[in-house]
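ZP: hey, is the zinc ion complex queued? I don't see it on the tracker
AM: it wasn't, my bad. submitting now with these inputs:
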Amino acid sequence: MDEVEPTMMKATCHTPGCPVAEQTFVEPMYPAPAPPVWRAQCGQCGQPVTDLVPADV
Ligand SMILES: [Zn+2]
């Protein structure tokens, strides 16, 4: 079947009061089937992470 390669993305949570706010995590992500293509959820505060940029690998 189709194998989708994950893309390394830098995700930064900006939710005020979040324990990991303003910290950038590099994680492998898979494109979503519908826009927005990249979606992530903060593991600490549970809010959607909107600051996603491709990481240099
Ligand atoms: Zn957060």
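AM: back. Residues 8 and 28 are 4 Å apart (CA to CA).
ZP: great, adding it to the tracker
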